[in-house]
Amino acid sequence: MSGALEIREGESGFVFYRYHPSLAAAAVFVALFAINTLVHAFQLARYRTWYFIPFVIGGIVEAIGYGGRIMSSNETPDWSGGTYILQTVFILIGPALMAASIYMILGRLIRLVGGEHLSFIPVNWMSKIFVTIDVISILMQIAGGAMLATADTESMYNAGEDIIISALFMQLAAFGVFVAVAGLFYRRIIQQPTAASRSAEFPWQRYLWLLFAGSALILVRSIFRVAEYLSGSSGLLMANEVFLYVFDAQLMVAVTVLFNVYHPSRIIYTPRRKVLQDESEVSSHVEVQPV
Question: Are 114 and 197 a contacting pair, CB within 8 Å?
């Protein structure tokens, strides 16, 4: 994914890339994200899982981001700031958008099994808290990416990096708390099962583990991005394109595939009604799809 390339540093010591961006690799991931996102869009429309809109947008954003890398590849070695901003910002914020939908799934699963009383964070506040943090993280990453691309001094470049690193740490912290909240709920409902959770018609445990798996993939990706920016533009991680594809692109495609194969609509299927909060109403109003 890298080739012989003469690197010409500006006064700030910053260059857009320290390798020749691979057109082939970027094209493969544009296709993978586009195909998986189309499937997600179909499932969203068919089953009215509107809480998956951010996930679909995240997939579109990822595809556009890697499309930006195709454009950068065609510009080598005279890269433009516009295409660099496009690929940097869109690839950074795509996972955060997907995370927003993952946050919302947990609340719906908790309601589905009538386990609101077992949740550490009130279900009505859960999505609001985590999605708000997610939005702040996205805005910070956009601002940081724009500063990197337009930096003409070392201090401005460092400021952009610091903003991105702070946003990624915020995302890591939110995901860590989210996984802890989900894990605590799982432990409590195993110890104090509700009537709905005992029903064989609701494979809720499978989808809770799905949340753990998806969260783990995004966590690994976020840890990589933090390490990448901490090491700087001339560090091993940022100076070698292969790491981006192994620890970001590949993991995020895996997340889209995972939620395509085990789409939450299989157990949370409410075409004309919101997910009910009263445990006594769950079995009579929530239509469960065959798994």
Answer: yes
Distance between CA atoms of 241 and 264, rounded to whole angstroms?
34
- CA 47 centroid distance within chain: 22
pTM of the full predicted structure? 0.85
Provide the sign of the torsion angle of the four alpha carbons 26, 29, 34, 35, taken in this order.
positive
Phi, psi of 12 (to 5 degrees): -80, -5
Name the amino acid, one letter, at 218.
I
The architecture of the domain spanning 23-285 is Up-down Bundle (1.20)
| End-to-end alpha carbon distance in the chain | 40
Is residue 79 a contact partner of residue 17, using CB atoms and an 8 Å limit? yes
Is residue 9 within 8 A of residue 239, CB to CB? The reply is no
Q: Do residues 26 and 90 make contact, with C-beta atoms less than 8 angstroms apart? A: no
Joined together, the tokens standing for residue 199 give 């029903």
Q: List the domain boundaries for the chain.
A: 23-285
Q: Which two tokens stand for residue 207?
A: 């989808």
Amino acid symbol at 51: Y
Residue 267 has pLDDT above 50, yes or no: yes
pLDDT tens-digit series, residues 157-174: 788 889 999 999 999 999
How many of the other CB atoms lie within 10 Å of CB of 122? 12
